Amino acid sequence: MPLTLKPGTAWQDAWQRALAAAPEAFREDRVRNLWNGAWQSDGHPLPAISPVDGSPIAGPPRLDAEAAGQAVRASLDQHRDWRHVPLPERRARVAAALDTLTEHRELLALLLVWEIGKPWRLAQADVDRAIDGVRWYVDGIDPMLEGRAPLDGPVSNIASWNYPMSVLVHAMLVQALAGNAVIAKTPTDGGLACLTLACALAHREGLPVTLVSGSGGELSEALVRAPEIGCVSFVGGRDTGGRVATAVADLGKRHILEQEGLNCWGIWEYSDWEALSAVIPKLFDYGKQRCTAYPRFVVQRSCFDAFLAAYLPAVRSVRLGHPLAVAAPEDPLPELDFGPLINAAKAKELTDQVAEAVDRGAVPLHRGSLADGHFLPGQDTSAYLPPVTLLNPPPSSPLHHAEPFGPVDTIVLVDTEAELLAAMNASNGALVATLSCDDQDTAKRLAAEVRAFKIGLGKPRSRGDRDELFGGFGASWRGAFVGGDLLVRAVTQGPPDERPPGNFPDYHLMPEA
């Protein structure tokens, strides 16, 4: 039976619900920017399409540098007032914002499906992690702020598109709870309507939120270099992150820069293949478009046949397709591991990289097919890429040394522990890594030599929530570490001689155990 779109889940359904929920933030034909405490019909709206099926959706109203500068100066005025609001009132306003976000949970998730292609389960999880994570701070903020004060200026947030709620909105609300006005730039590739609705709900509760759209190059002078900015919080790739790092280092500005790294899963003297096979499909959540995804397996050569016997059936079970397609109107939304990549250009880029790597000697071990996907009849599938697995990508390929940010696994074979460690440290630092060894002492010994902030033993590590700390080694992170009380410390001022844990140009300091 041909699949059909689940009734009530079309983009126009979501758009009309957003207009009804926050008419101040949306117009029939556009989304508005939020600055100077008001919704502004400024900027030049660009066309945009959904990665789900290539259909038109709302595009970002891009500001120019002059307007962005005005927005930053207005945010400083908000900051100077907000930093003196007593903590009980700040806590009450953030809690009220969380309540209204909870009321609109399903709409926020549906907007994420259309704008960035998240399957329904993962879109809901993104919203829930934001709400639940900030509630943890609301309940426990008092001791975290003891002896601390807000920054001298607002926090500027520039984040990638993959986690608009659980990373960006979460950070913004905690920053506001800590006494700062907050500014966010809408990610260029997606999340506009979801973020706009979330900011509208927060703004109604009196939180000092600014949300603007524009190109990173044009707005960086205002959002990164402006003297009014108290801290820059960035999540994204190394190229852009490097430019931001240079700017904040030159200015001596407080910063939190989360950048990509090639997260590796090492296999050494291992035999519990059933456990590994069970986790492989989960590693494809959201098509590995995550900063904590594992796109590289470093495998002991003598284990390779057993590894393949466990890996290949698992990767063949991965499910992809249209996140809102059902066989019958009353059916629940499908349980998928991932939908589209963020856009067709990214799917083509990875397809070309795979082809080039194979031409230069990589061995294709698995190639999925869109024919096995879960799609509407005749829909545009140009943003979809089924799983691919390559053995030994050549050093000339980007797949050898960089995170693909898509469902492309690479496998490197090694014969010695030294080769294992060299391969796992190929990207000069990572956010997470995992080692699978039968002997836990061996795993711990090897883990001490892996340059990743979090290292799992037989199990994947993630960014984490609530009191779990997060950071990176090497080029994967610049500035203060976050998570738990470290997030609050990163966006507040403590004693004059304080050295926050983090990765800075003049020192690297890990949190206390």
Automatic annotation (TrEMBL):
It comes from the Bacteria. Keywords: Oxidoreductase. Signal peptide: none annotated. The keyword Transport does not apply. Residues 43-485 form the Aldehyde dehydrogenase domain. PANTHER family: ALDEHYDE DEHYDROGENASE-RELATED. This is Aldehyde dehydrogenase family protein.
